[in-house]
């Protein structure tokens, strides 16, 4: 097994990113997108990351590129993500972002399957789920 670490782009800046299916949120160094739109969390969740706990006060909405393919996501700003395999991390791409854009990891080869980002067509099941709860629009 391997970790997948890639150089991507966040808000026009080069950034070292690790793709982590074990993390729910996407995290980024605060200084990477200081001017990105943000929203305060009404009830801040508490998460454990890098051996410490963090109260998520806000999310930032960011634009990025992976291998030249555009994506948008929300991210938790954090002062420092630390070092992994000799790389100082700028971004940790979490499961919600990977699921949203259908980014798949191949840990044997250490590569990303970006077919979802390339295709840019997604199936939503919202109406079916709302029907289960007898909710109508």
Kindly report the average pLDDT value.
88
Number of strands: 13
Judged by helices, strands and strand pairing, the structural class is mainly beta
Radius of gyration: 16 Å
Query: How many individual helices?
Result: 3
At CATH level 2, the architecture is Beta Barrel
CATH top-level class: Mainly Beta
Low-confidence stretches: none
Largest sheet entry? 6 strands, mixed, barrel
Helix-strand blueprint:
Layout: E1 4-10, E2 13-19, E3 27-29, E4 38-40, E5 46-49, E6 52-55, E7 58-66, E8 69-78, E9 83-84, E10 87-88, E11 91-93, H1 95-100, E12 104-106, E13 111-113, H2 115-119, H3 126-132
Parallel strand pairs: 2-11, 3-8
Antiparallel strand pairs: 1-2, 1-7, 3-11, 4-7, 5-6, 7-8, 9-10, 12-13
